[in-house]
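Hey L., structure's done. Input below.
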Amino acid sequence: MTKQEMAEKDYLAGMKYKDIAAKYEVSINTVKSWKKRNGWVRGAPKKKSVHPKTKKVAPKKEIPAVKELVEDTDLTDKQKTFCMYYLQRYNATWAYQKAYDSTYETAMTSGSRLLRNDKVKSYLSKLKTQQAQDLYLTANDILLRYVHQATSNVNDVLSFRTEKHLAYYKIRDANGPYEDGGGKFRYEPKINPETGEQDFYYEHIVELKDSKDIDTSNIKSIRIDKGEPVVEMEDKQKAMQILLDRLPEPEVNDDSTNSLLNAIGAGLKKIWSDRDDKEK
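Output:
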């Protein structure tokens, strides 16, 4: 049974507003709003009907669930409903349509105007604080996730190694020790004409790490293409930009600035020098 349902029983039993408010740790205004919204009436006579008829009632529009509405506000019920819907998608037009059952054209202008209302902004701020407490989540928690994303590396998921193999010719031979669909064959070493020694080649191997050793939180997708794993990580540049937008500007002294400029200048001079050498 919800807090409102228990409060209704106490109200119908004759308990006063202030006593109900104290019992359930809410304000008197909240108790009054519960009464008005749910139609609590003390001593309402029970109607009896010999031939009861089923009455069709239009379904009541559901308001997005929040544990407890923020108390002591002068907003109307529709304004509060707008705020609840807005926190679902952060879309003022959609929230206004849902709360006021209006056309899209009306919601386009009225939604943004309502969002600029000082009382609405204050109410939204309180609701966000309440949501954060319910979720045990802060802005720092989200920024830490971006830090984790920005510092992720494909090496966290894939392992790379190179193996050296000797090179052989595959020669068909009726007396060969090996056999395939084309018949018997043997292998002969492939000799490098320059060194006179057996030639070799390198094989580059990419393998997916064991799932128990992988942090999947930074992986966008994994697929196998032509027998090789292909991993797409979350956007590191986007995460870095988000962090840069929220972190203070770095302090740079004159010495470090000059060192950086000198390094850039030296690099450019080398590029120009190499280009001039090629043109000569």
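The longest helix spans residues 254-279. Residues 46-51, 65-69 have pLDDT under 50 and may be disordered.

-- N.
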